[in-house]
Predict the 3D structure of the following.
Amino acid sequence: MIEIIIAVAVLIIILSLIIIIYGNRFHFAIIKIDEAESNLDVLLLRKLDLLERTVPIIKKELKLEEFLSDMATIEEANLNHFQLNELLRTEYATLFKTLDDNEKLFKSESLNRILRDLNDNEEAIIGSIKFYNDNVVIFNQLVSSFPSKIVALLRHYKRKEFYSDEDKEMYEILGE
């Protein structure tokens, strides 16, 4: 009888340790993902601001009535950071296509300062997206592998979305 009680106690201790260890791993991954999302939110808002600052300069130099017209609706729309990133990426590409087509715009010192800031911001966004995706890979591996899958089921954790398809493909190759 004592052997059964000891076996049950050992089993409970082992399960408790598994839940604690993998719960902490999940918690750590969630903290890092939240940190990356916060950084991305700040960087994306900065990118939005910088893109908005280019509009009056380009409109004035090229004598345009409209330029980056979707910028006005971005702030009113309730977009998550994935949607905001895609929309800003499109506007960013439009800006650089316009710059390529109109070399005279590079004569504006204020525009050149904004473009340098945009370039620095874009590099920071790329780094933050990599940090986010790396931590999502870790989180999703925890969600889908044993024994951490038990903790994921108990805490109702679901797989998270990636920012880019390349990390998603890498995860699918490695994880599934």
Remarks:
- The chain has a mean pLDDT of 85.
